[in-house]
Amino acid sequence: MGRPRAFLELKRAEPGYRPVEERVRDFHSVERQMNYEDLRRQSSRCMDCGTPFCHAYGCPLGNVIPEFNQMVYEGNWRSALELLLSTNNFPEFTGRVCPAPCEASCVAGLTTDPVTIRHIELAIIEKGFEDGYVGAGCTGIRLPMRVAIVGSGPAGLAAADTVNRLGYKTVVYESAPRPGGILKYGIPDFKLEKWVLSRRLKLMESQGILFETGVTVGEDISFKYLTKMFDAVCLACGAREPRDLNLTGRDLKGIHFAMDYLTGQNLANEGDNDSQHGVISARDKKVVVIGGGDTGSDCLGTALRQGAQKVIQIEILPMPPLNRADYTPWPLWPAVLRRTHAHKEGGELLWGVMTKEFLGEKGMLKAIKCVEVDWKRDYEGRPLSPVERAGTDFILEADMVLLAMGFTGSGNGKLIEEAGLVLDQKGSVRADAMRRTNLDGVFAAGDMVQGQSLVVKAIADGRRAGYAIDSYLKNKRFNCDCHS
Ligand SMILES: Cc1cc2nc3c(=O)[nH]c(=O)nc-3n(C[C@H](O)[C@H](O)[C@H](O)COP(=O)(O)OP(=O)(O)OC[C@H]3O[C@@H](n4cnc5c(N)ncnc54)[C@H](O)[C@@H]3O)c2cc1C
What is the pTM of this model? Predict the structure, then answer.
């Protein structure tokens, strides 16, 4: 513990955001970074409580938070970096985009504000890059066994980084022209500037990982080829099958899936548009975003920056409570009203609204028909099912609709069928706690297993698969040596 009473004496501080009028004119990161000295002081607010829920419960990676806070407070940034990297392959991603479940379960948060953990994490890794310590100490050992990773989102990258560090020859197959998955193609630059990803990918390549992009496993190369050429395979293909809204008028021009929309703009920001993804522009348009989650909020922020005339985001769920809901007591991730930075930039968010029909003229979208809904709740107050409120139908003018209602699964039917992978009830690939699928030597990680989730969970899952692959290959080698 830095200073025993610091959490009582020192207020939580955050770096804050660039002013709205400035940030909506560009796609650069909206969040500021705090200076190292202020963060060092913030780290002293850590109580070093008996049971650090941040580490043991909140963080899916099990980041050793109280200890790195102590090291930062002592100015021992290098040790803090080593400790952080021992549980998290890519703190520069989580330090920027993680919703920080660690902070939601911080014990200090029970009586005052939680420790600024996410920003401390970001400072540790960024200082490490600045001081030239990141990438040092990578393995020189090279084992003869080869591992194929399919998919280069955070789960695939974490699995690749883990097995590569353990000495396995690692090849990542990626169907998109560039690696990164949603980090590259989905999350807007105003949350994660793409130089952060490029810097990491360059490092991984320099450490021996081979990226084969523009290769779809199951189409361009067979799954059988991979199992023949590699000693183990990890599938990390994400869950990118978008949920559709098959209502009357769905075929009108002007209705797009969120990922297609975000991808076009992300690529344009880098001058990297491919033939598949041109910019879908919201300039001067009346935009309705259907879906009130993070993807919807990313669409809202993007449409505002493109110069939309008006943006309305609608969500079928009821508005969450202003304070932590009773059914999510501490240290659970709280059900509570969250206004993202995009919501503070403009637009309007309507809760408890269901879409009934898309209306158009001459094939072009003109409006959507909606209705307000009430929610039946369980005994603790969780919303269960919507019921239309009679007489509340209304029309929203719209010449662009962005569908941001989540994802239904991985797609990848051909690959799954060819491989003979078993799926669970939700349609995700079934994998056990060690991320083993039903096929010998084939592992799966990330959204492909857990459904659309979080970057931090994808990294944790990729690491888990990486270590499981190591155990599997060690056993295999041991058995071969014993038999020969
Ligand atoms: C718009 C958007 C914003 C988000 N914002 C946040 C956020 O701010 N914070 C947060 O924590 N989480 C966020 N998420 C969720 C997070 O990005 C995902 O949970 C995470 O990226 C999942 O990682 P993954 O590696 O499992 O899958 P993905 O990132 O989807 O990567 C899967 C990769 O596999 C490739 N692939 C698929 N099939 C094949 C094949 N057959 N052959 C070769 N390659 C293949 C795909 O092209 C893709 O590159 C967001 C999600 C979206 C959609």
Answer: 0.96
